[in-house]
C-alpha cells in the first residue's frame, strides 16, 4: 500500500484525511475524565452537541461507524430475528458479518434503485413471526448517503415513508448516517429532518468531517442508555477519550464546508463525463463520491489506478471496470483539475 506524500491527491476515501492544526491543538488542550463512568467533559459536550444538531435527546460516542451500527442494532433486536436492509448496505457487505456474528441477526436484503428501496418491497419483506418457518423481523436499516450507490442521499420523504411503515409494524429503524451531513448538504435540508423520524442514527466524524477517530449514535435517552450498556459489552467504553472527542468537536463545527467537497466531486464528474472511454452516471453524483466505469478493452480499473499512481493520484478500483473517487477536506479545486488532466493523459 502506498504511503501518501504531501503532493499526493488521495481520492481513495474520505477516511484518509489528516487531522488539521486546529484539531491537533484542541486535542492537546482537551479536558478529560473517565468516560466509562460518564466523567469526560469533552465527550459529554460532543454528545450533547451531536444530539442537539440532530434534534434528538441524547448521543453516545463510539470509536467507529461499524461499532455505532453494531451497538445501535444490537440494542434494539434479539438473536434469531431478521434485519431488513438494502442489498448493497454497508452493514451487509462491509462490516465483517457483525450483524450476524455479534447480534445473531439474519439479513433480509431488498434491492434498491441507486440505494433507494421500494417501500412496498420493504413492507413485503416484513415477517410478523406468525409463520414458524421464518425469523421475525427485528429492525429495518437505512443508509444515507448510500456508499455503494455512489453517495446518493435518500430523499427525506423516503426516510419518512420507511419509518411510518416500520412503526406501523412496531419495528424500529436504524439509520447508518455515516455521511448524514453530506446527505443534508446534498438535499439542502437541516440534518434534523433526516434524523428525527428514525429510532437511532449513527454518523461518523472520521469521514467527510475529517476527524481522525469516532462516531456518534443519537436517539431517545432511554435507548441511548441501552446502547451505553451494549457498548460496554463489546469493549467500547473508553477512559480519557476527550483527547479524541476534542478533534471531533472541531470537525463537527466545520460541517458547513462539506458543500466544497460536493462541488469538487461534481467538477470531476462533469469533466470525466465528456472523456471517451469513461462513463459517469451524473444522477448519482450528489455528494462527495464519483463512481466511474472504464469502458475500454485495453485498460481495466486496476491498471488505470496504477497509472494514476505515477501522477501521485490514489484511487480505488471497485471491480474490473469501476473506480471510486472520493473528495474530502484535503482535496482542492486545483487538485480536481490535476486529476482530470492525468486521466486524460493516461487514456489518450
Ligand atoms: C456507509 C458506511 N457506514 C459505516 C461505515 C463504517 O465506518 P468505520 O470504518 O468507521 O467503521 C462506513 C465506512 O466507510 C460507511 O461508508
Provide structural commentary.
With 348 residues, the protein is of the alpha/beta class. Helix content is 40%, strand content 16%. The protein has a seven-stranded mixed sheet with strand order 2-8-7-6-5-3-4, sandwiched between helices. The longest helix is centred in the last third of the chain and has 16 residues. The site of pyridoxal-5'-phosphate (PLP) has 11 residues, from helix 3.
H/E element sequence: EHHEHEHHEHEHEHHEEHHHEEHEEEH
Q: Residue-averaged pLDDT, rounded?
A: 96
- Order of strands in the sheet with most strands: 2-8-7-6-5-3-4
Number of discrete domains: 2
Low-confidence stretches: none
Please tell me the CATH architecture of the largest domain by its name.
Answer: 3-Layer(aba) Sandwich
CATH class (first level) name of the largest domain: Alpha Beta
Largest sheet descriptor = 7 strands, mixed
Fourth-tier CATH superfamily name of the largest domain: Type I PLP-dependent aspartate aminotransferase-like (Major domain)
Helix content: 25-40%
Small-molecule binders here are: pyridoxal-5'-phosphate
Amino acid at each position: 500500500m502506498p504511503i501518501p506524500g504531501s503532493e499526493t491527491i488521495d481520492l481513495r476515501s474520505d477516511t484518509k484525511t489528516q487531522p488539521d492544526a486546529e484539531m491537533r491543538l484542541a486535542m492537546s488542550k482537551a479536558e478529560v475524565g473517565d468516560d466509562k463512568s460518564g466523567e469526560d467533559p469533552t465527550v459529554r459536550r460532543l454528545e450533547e452537541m451531536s444530539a442537539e444538531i440532530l434534534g434528538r435527546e441524547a448521543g453516545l460516542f463510539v470509536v467507529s461507524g461499524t461499532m455505532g451500527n453494531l451497538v445501535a442494532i444490537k440494542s434494539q433486536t434479539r438473536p434469531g430475528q431478521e434485519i431488513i436492509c438494502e442489498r448493497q448496505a454497508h452493514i451487509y457487505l462491509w462490516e465483517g458479518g457483525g450483524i450476524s456474528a455479534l447480534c445473531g441477526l439474519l439479513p433480509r436484503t431488498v434491492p434498491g434503485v441507486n440505494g433507494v428501496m421500494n417501500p412496498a418491497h420493504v413492507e413485503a419483506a416484513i415477517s410478523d413471526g406468525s409463520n414458524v418457518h421464518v425469523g421475525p423481523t427485528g429492525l429495518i436499516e437505512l443508509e444515507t448517503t448510500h456508499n455503494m450507490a455512489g453517495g446518493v442521499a435518500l430523499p427525506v420523504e423516503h426516510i419518512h415513508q420507511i419509518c411510518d411503515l416500520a412503526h406501523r409494524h412496531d419495528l424500529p429503524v436504524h439509520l447508518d448516517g455515516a455521511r448524514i451531513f453530506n446527505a443534508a448538504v446534498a438535499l439542502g435540508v437541516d440534518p434534523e429532518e433526516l434524523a428525527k423520524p428514525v429510532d437511532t442514527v449513527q454518523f461518523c466524524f472520521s469521514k467527510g468531517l475529517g476527524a481522525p477517530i469516532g462516531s456518534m449514535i443519537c436517539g431517545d435517552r432511554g435507548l441511548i442508555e441501552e446502547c451505553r450498556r451494549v457498548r460496554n459489552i463489546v469493549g467500547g467504553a473508553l477512559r480519557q477519550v476527550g483527547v479524541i472527542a476534542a478533534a471531533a468537536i472541531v470537525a463537527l463545527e466545520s460541517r458547513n464546508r462539506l458543500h466544497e467537497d460536493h462541488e469538487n466531486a461534481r467538477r470531476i464528474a462533469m469533466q470525466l463525463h465528456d472523456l471517451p472511454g469513461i462513463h459517469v452516471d451524473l444522477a448519482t453524483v450528489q455528494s462527495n463520491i464519483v463512481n466511474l466505469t472504464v469502458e475500454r478493452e485495453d485498460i481495466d480499473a486496476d491498471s488505470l489506478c496504477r497509472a494514476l499512481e505515477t501522477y501521485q493520484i490514489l484511487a480505488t478500483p471497485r471491480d474490473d471496470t469501476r473506480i471510486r473517487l472520493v473528495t474530502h477536506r484535503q482535496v482542492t479545486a486545483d487538485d480536481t483539475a490535476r486529476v482530470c488532466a492525468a486521466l486524460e493523459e493516461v487514456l489518450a
